[in-house]
Amino acid sequence: MDPELLLIILVDGLVYGSYLFMVAVGLTVICGVQKLLNVTHGALYAFGAYLAATLLILYFRVDWPEYGAFAVMLLAALFLGVVFGLIIERGLLRHLYHEDEHIIVLATFAAFLVLEDVLLLIWGTDPYLAPEPLGLLGSTEIAGLPFDNYSLSMVLLSAVVASVLWYGLNRTQFGKLLLAVIYDRELAQAMGINVNRIFLLTFMLGSFLGALGGAYQAPAISVQPGIGVEVIVLAFAVVVIGGMGSIPGALIGSVIVGVARAFAVHQEPALELFVIYLIMATVLIVRPQGLFAPAKPRTI
Amino acid sequence: MSWRQDKTLWGLTLGLAALLLLNFVVPDWFRNILTLSLARGSVALGLLVLWRCGLISFGHALYFGFGAYTVGLMSRYLGITDAFLTIACGVVTAGLLAYGLGFLLRQYRGIFFALLNMAFSMILYGVLAKLEELGSTDGISLEATTYLWYAPLGAENKTALFVFAVILTWGVAVLVHLYLRSTLGNMTTAVRENEIRLGYLGYSGERAVHAKYVISGLLGGFGGAIAVLTIGHVDPDSMVYWPVSGDFVFIAILSGTGNVVAPFIGALMYELIRTYAFDQFPGIWQLIMGGTLLAIIMFLPNGLWSLVDRGRSRAGAGALPAEREEG
């Protein structure tokens, strides 16, 4: 194959992969610690996109430094992560931890339906556009094709998020506590770790990451109803491919899926829509626990 | 238990009679809701069969959509509009798909089973939304349904379809009920409780799961075929996308797994709530659906049928002392 095309496919794949990573990483964090699949994650993504788009439109009306836009996105995500983390974890999930895992998924599905309508009640059905940050960064030419620097910066953002998470998990005290809870929740509790607090903080962190994914994506897309529904299955697929709860898994999983999709787009467009699920099904068949999940003994 | 003592069979037959009589009374829109509840209830019945062995599928829109598309494609390409033939084909193709995928899926339990189903349903969604020959995102519209040599038009066609759907669904529900009473059917609970012990007893848990999976696939195809005949149109977003699968699980939760009648009651409740919410509060109907589901999970974890069971056990508790006195 033509090396230039290959380069384009790789860059395209990395950009799409970093988008996938941003939406999947929060899901996998929650999944790893709390052992639950959180469907509300899609709503967090949508809320992040809407809030960021609204704030950006307001921000660019006043004459403040243009690069402050990035701080606005971050703050929007932080705000949503804390507020929704509190509401969903304290108000709903806390009462369901003793239930079957299926029931918890369904409860988050129900909460997702509710949040979707709350979103419509707040923002209505009109699309929101806030492309200013996109123009701010300009574009680069790679192999004869112009790429937005903004999209390329998503790769950077994903790398930063992945490194910060890795560092936080493996090199800080909170990370050690988290690992203890992941490994054995009851024993961790017996050792005096406040598992309830850890769960709340984890859920806030995961929600923040979901909202950040939406907020950072907002300038690049038209923010409109339905983006949450689309994102949640993509994020599920990536998490399943990488192994539930594994951050490196989410990283590698999103790169694989991103590049595979870019290949499909450039070589075989008919495959584009379902290449992700094809990979997901293949991985589930060959290695159901996901590519990077730690092995678990079979229990009787 | 003999035929006569089986309350469920009596209940089903009473329901059949009631629905057939209702046909003369109810307005068109309500009959539509009833037919759709039969369709969705059938899929939820398939989920019930799976749930009895502790499995949930987040992708049964796969079979629902497969049955519906079989009917749609037959009408579009072969010009076949006969209800008997199209429904039979929809059911059989969905069943064959379930049989094939079953070899793979029967090895999985828990969340993996649920998600693998979702993956397959999303693959079908991708194929259907992409291929022009299959209608793409616009879907396929059906010609008017015929019944052997009987080709009714307009309102008469709706009546015919309703009667047809009611009778077929009754048959299906009776068959599933008899199956669940049988040894193979009772093995579901054993798979859920302790599959390894079941293996030591000389039964294959995987085979039991496979059989149940095929049954749920057949029921999914049946539901899809009835639904597409009722709506007259099939498209990927309203029949195969993942929230559709979510709706089926919703109905299953709402109904509870106590009895084959439960999914149909649950489906009717679901359709009523949905229609009412959509009609009265179009802006927040999803909120109402989600709120209902949350309330069920929180306050009625075993579904609507647990109310029936509770009523029965209360009646039973009242009768108990008298029996003791006799003894």
Explain this structure to me?
- The complex is a heterodimer of chains A (300) and B (327).
- Chain A contains 12 helices and 2 strands; from the N terminus they run αααααββααααααα.
- Chain A is mainly α and 300 residues long.
- In chain A, strands 1-2 form a two-stranded antiparallel ribbon.
- In chain A, a hairpin with a 2-residue loop joins strand 1 and strand 2 (145-148).
- The radius of gyration of chain A is 19 Å and the shape is globular.
- Chain A starts with a helix and ends in a 14-residue tail after the last helix.
- By secondary structure, chain B is an all-alpha fold.
- Chain B has a two-stranded antiparallel ribbon.
- The A-B interface holds A 37, 92, 95-96, 99, 101-103, 105-107, 109-118, 120-121, 229, 233, 236-237, 240, 244, 270, 272-274, 277-278, 280-281, 284-285, 288-289, 300 and B 56, 58, 104, 108, 110-112, 114-116, 118-120, 122-123, 125-127, 129-131, 196, 241-243, 246, 249-250, 253, 283-287, 289-291, 293-294, 297-298, 301.
Order of helices and strands of chain A: HHHHHEEHHHHHHH
Strand content of chain A: under 5%
Low-confidence stretches of chain A: none
Quaternary form = heterodimer
Tell me the structural class of chain B: mainly alpha
Kindly report the spatial arrangement of strands forming the biggest sheet of chain A.
1-2
Reported for the largest beta sheet of chain B, the result is: 2 strands, antiparallel
Q: Give the name of the CATH architecture of chain A.
A: Orthogonal Bundle
Instruction: Report the CATH topology name of chain A.
Output: ABC transporter involved in vitamin B12 uptake, BtuC
Order of helices and strands of chain B: HHHHHEHHHEHHHHH
Structural category of chain A is mainly alpha
Mean pLDDT of chain A: 87
Which consecutive residue ranges of chain B, at least 5 long each, have pLDDT under 50?
Answer: 318-327
CATH classification class of chain A: Mainly Alpha
Tell me, rounded to a whole number, the average pLDDT of chain B.
84
SS summary, helix count of chain B: 13
Number of strands of chain B: 2
Task: Work out the strand percent of chain B.
Answer: under 5%
Percent helix range of chain B? over 70%
